[in-house]
Design goal:
about 725 residues, five-stranded mixed β-sheet, metalloprotease, endoplasmic reticulum, Peptidase_M1, hydrolase
């Protein structure tokens, strides 16, 4: 039709009405899910054919965006214009892209010099379909349009965040586009595989700071407004585009290579950004060496946002944080807050390589982003602050993943995502904690040096591109010669993990695996398990793959020099593996002696008690065995070990209070002994501040509650 249509806003859907009053919104008939939705026929006959599909078609893809945005912080609205260079690869008369909660000005839409004859915006699919009266020429063309939207209060898309300046309430404009919310700011191909270059321009009040991914090229001031032009970005996914507009102060430093790093805060808070700035600079230098690839952008900004849904977001060159995740006050913040700031900063900066430079092909491979960033953030912080014993903190992440993944309702690391609406559901402890833990397990099996070299090759091969989980395994396998794909597929494509039953039979160590479930039931899972073992000393160790349900490890030569109380075998050295171990009575007794003699690492001291508790809860071992093990820790003074031991004691006490009052009393006495001895050691070793930190732990607060109750009862 040649009639001129005008847009009517109805929720997030633009319904176009012709002058005769005819409604041109298309009927909402469902289209069955097609796994090859990205290969929809280019020669579709109607916009309706694109409805109900999980992904955008690939017959036209963006190469570059020129984006102009004008946020109105008083009215909480914005207007904009987008011009996208598009490569048309197959004959078609349609362009299909994402748009949601935007009012697109139909009269402004042009592809080259052509106006569309059909415009359909499907609210439930968040897509905009443009139909033309002729076939589009193959090759590059330019799509342009104007649009308006609302600076929402939902902390996603282009939104407003409130702050105070000189006692006055103000709004700042902020973006949060992961996972699929760039479409709420501007029409775009809002999937991670559609990488393009971005040239952004902002028109804002002249007194405000306006930040984006790239450095400012120039600013021009016209009355109360200024126009800020930014450098063109390298190829990047839409979810990494970022814009922040408001009043800020900043502090800055530089990396060894001269990359400028800044921390932006609300006015007057820059002193609280010094620690994050220091960690950020050191992390960039460290990751440049580790990945053997320079930081890809000319600058890095980190900014604290008052209203922020996530802990932080790794936008390319402009990382946004919740204030508590970036700012550290030396006078008021706790030691744990300091560690969390360091971990969070390192995590987001690791994404600049693993996630931003190399990006997952689709959200099914989300764990590639989050698992790797979580793991490598601990690697970085351990290097920057070795005195923190940071890997013992990482064990908390592993423990969290183990607890969640022992539920029958868990899910694999890799989850097939069929629609953008499903994405948020997989941002959980499996993506982050289990993902990071199995990567650490793989690194331990392959060896740190071989693993690092292979990762560097992977980054180089897929830089400025996209990759799937299988692509990573292929590179690691090629670089190391190990069966990485077969091994890791058992960990990423099925839920759960095994418990390894270890039994001593003469000179043989008999091993058997079974899926561990916290309810005590049996699961069908089977894994290729990277096993590590040491005997009597960490210098006597072995590494092998448990490929079937059972295997036997010959230990005659391995354990020949060990006898009596010096004989002990520890599987899963330093808890590098994502599995639990159930020892027979003889092996368990040997480990109890090793604990008393302080022969084990902190990681293993924690891992043994966590495994034993989980096995007891699942009725895989007796409570008596657990209590005997807990008693072996009665002379322990390390804070992190005590934190886990007392947490287990409190959990057992909670279970046993009604069922067995005598047992509850014994557990309380053990806790008293643990804490009193810890205080004595702290005083002797002049580590009272560490002990004080422990005394403030939630475990101690709970302990004080039930000892107070006991004293009131006179028992």
């Amino acid at each position: 039709s040649s009639a001129t249509w005008s847009p009517l806003q109805f929720n997030a859907l633009n319904i176009y009405v012709c002058p005769s009053g005819e409604v041109a919104a298309l009927a909402k008939s469902a289209v069955a899910f097609d796994p090859s939705a990205s290969d929809l026929p280019a020669m579709a006959e109607s916009p309706e054919q694109f409805r109900g599909q999980s992904r955008l078609p690939r017959f036209a893809e963006p190469l570059r965006y020129d984006l102009v945005l004008r946020p109105d912080l008083a009215a909480c609205t914005f207007s904009g214009s987008a011009s996208a260079a598009v490569a048309v690869s197959s004959p078609t008369r349609f362009l299909v892209l994402n748009a949601a909660e935007l009012a697109v000005d139909r009269s402004s839409i042009r592809f080259q010099d052509w106006a569309p004859t059909e415009v359909a915006q499907f609210e439930e699919d968040e897509i905009l379909v443009l139909g033309f009266d002729r076939e589009l020429p193959l090759g590059e063309g330019v799509l342009a349009m104007d649009f308006t939207g609302t600076l929402n209060d939902q902390m996603r898309g282009f939104y407003r965040s409130k702050y105070e300046y000189n006692g006055e309430a103000r709004n700042m404009a902020v973006t949060q586009f992961e996972a699929a919310d760039a479409r709420r700011c501007f029409p775009c191909w809002d999937e991670p595989a559609f990488k393009a270059k971005f040239k952004i321009t902002l028109e804002v009040p002249a007194e405000l700071v306006a930040l984006s991914n790239m450095p400012v090229v120039k600013e021009t001031v016209c009355g109360p407004l200024k126009t800020v032009y930014y450098e063109e970005s390298p190829l990047m996914s839409t979810y990494l585009v970022a814009i922040v507009v408001g009043l800020f102060d900043y502090i800055e430093s530089s990396t060894l290579e001269g990359t400028k790093v800044r921390v932006y805060t609300q006015v007057g808070k820059t002193s609280q950004g010094k620690f994050a700035l220091d960690v950020g600079v050191k992390s960039l230098d460290l990751f440049k060496d580790y990945f053997a690839t320079p930081y890809p952008l000319p600058k890095l900004d980190m900014i604290a946002i008052p209203d922020f849904a996530a802990g932080a977001m790794e936008n390319y060159g402009l990382v946004t944080y919740r204030e508590s995740a970036l700012l550290y006050d030396e006078q008021l913040s706790s030691a744990s807050n300091k560690q969390q700031v360091a971990i969070t900063v390192a995590h987001e900066l690791a994404h600049q390589w693993f996630g931003n430079l190399v990006t997952m092909e689709w959200w099914t491979h989300l764990w590639l982003n989050e698992g790797f960033a979580s793991w490598v953030s601990y690697l970085a912080v351990e290097s920057i602050f070795p005195e923190w014993n940071n890997w013992t903190q990482f064990l908390d992440e592993t423990t969290s993943g183990l607890r969640l993944d022992a539920l029958a309702e868990s899910h694999p690391i890799e989850v097939d995502v069929n629609h953008a609406s499903e994405i948020d559901a997989i941002f959980d402890s499996i993506s982050y904690d289990k993902g990071a833990s199995v990567i650490r397990m793989l690194q331990s099996y392959l060896g740190a040096e071989r693993f690092q070299k292979a990762l560097a090759s992977y980054i180089k091969k897929y830089a400025y591109s996209n990759a799937k989980t299988e692509d990573l395994w292929a590179v690691l396998e090629e670089e190391t010669g190990e069966p990485v794909k077969d091994l890791m597929t058992t960990w990423t494509k099925q839920q759960g993990y095994p418990v390894i039953y270890a039994k001593l039979n003469g000179q043989d160590l008999e091993l058997e695996q079974a899926q561990f479930l916290s309810d005590g039931s049996s699961g069908p899972g089977m894994w290729i398990v990277p096993m590590t073992a040491c005997c009597g000393s960490y210098d006597l160790n072995k590494k092998f793959l448990l490929k079937g349900k059972t295997d036997t490890m010959h230990i005659k030569d391995f354990a020949a020099s060990q006898s009596g109380q010096n004989f002990w075998i520890k599987l899963n050295i330093d808890q590098n593996g994502f599995y639990r171990v159930k020892y027979d009575d003889e092996l368990a007794a040997g480990l109890e002696n090793a604990i008393k003699a302080k022969k084990l690492s902190l990681m293993d001291m924690i891992g043994i008690v966590e495994d034993s508790y989980a096995l007891s809860v699942a009725c895989k071992q007796t409570l008596t065995s657990l209590l005997r093990l807990l008693n072996a820790y009665r002379h322990e003074s390390d804070y992190t070990v005590l934190s886990h031991v007392t947490s287990v004691c409190l959990s057992v006490n909670k279970i046993s209070t009604d069922a067995n009052p005598d047992l509850s009393s014994d557990i309380k006495q053990l806790l008293i002994k643990l804490l009193l001895l810890a205080a004595k050691y702290a005083d002797k070793l002049n580590t009272v501040p560490v002990f004080n930190m422990f005394m403030c732990d939630y475990n101690f607060k709970a302990f004080m509650r039930f000892t107070f109750q006991k004293s009131r009862l006179g028992s």
